[in-house]
Design a protein that fits this description.
68 residues; mainly alpha; 2 helices; transmembrane
Length: 68
């Protein structure tokens, strides 16, 4: 009887573990984002930083080079 009780507990533990594995196993309950969206957002962020860099160089940099 003890062997049977232990095997059912082991089977229940395996069932619990099996449900947790796979996508979403990190415990997060939020929405998942497709890899294409992540790629577009990261390229957009890089472009935004590049535009800020250019704006900073053109308009916010001290204009000492043209003065004598």
């Amino acid at each position: 009887m003890g062997l049977r009780r232990g095997s059912t507990a082991a089977a229940a533990g395996l069932r619990r573990r099996r449900k947790k594995s796979g996508a979403g196993a990190t415990g997060g309950t939020g929405n998942s984002i497709s890899p294409n969206i992540v790629l577009v957002m990261s390229i957009g962020f890089i472009a935004f930083v590049a535009v800020l860099h250019v704006v900073g160089k053109l308009y916010l940099a001290p204009r000492e080079a043209g003065r004598s």
